Amino acid sequence: MIRKMLAALSFLYFSVAAMASCVCDMSEAGVTGDIVVIGQALPEFSVALSDGRVVTPETFAGRPAVIVFFSTECVDCRKELPVIQRLYEERGDAAGFVCISRAEGEGSVETYWHTHGLTLPYSAQTDREVFHLFARGTIPRVYVCDAEGTVRAAFATKVTNKKLKTELDNLIAKD
User: Fold this and answer.
1) Longest distance between any two alpha carbons in the chain, whole Å
2) I need a labelling partner for 132 at 20 to 30 A (CA). Which of 10, 35, 38, 85 fits?
3) Using one digit for the tens of pLDDT, what is the confidence trace for 151-165?
4) Model pTM?
């Protein structure tokens, strides 16, 4: 009897821990969250990258871009970042890329990048100010923009390498 109770408590503990580890915000789960939608221009934003460069929508002028919002504590983000990394390695010369943390500081993002061998440009944001220019809830969130800064595709929670590559390749071919 005690074993069954311990097993049930263990299951419950790990289930809750798994949900809590995804900073996708259960408090925001009822919000659709889209502020920037397909066909709309990128909002004005400015973020400093880990190497000191500053990224704004104008940084991407003249070429397509992929903008990713993430948290290294989010289980879904951990699955998506390698997908984005592969695309960056394949298409980084033809398109701009930036990953922007949602309320996560430089230390933890830098450690995660180093530990997982990521080379994507990133900006660690300790708050949600930039994220809230794009959306209110749900990460990971990926925006694919054309050379004029118009959002042509947007993904929340999951995007396959094939789908993302197709969207980006269509924009690269237009240039």
Assistant:
1) 67
2) 85
3) 999 998 788 889 999
4) 0.82
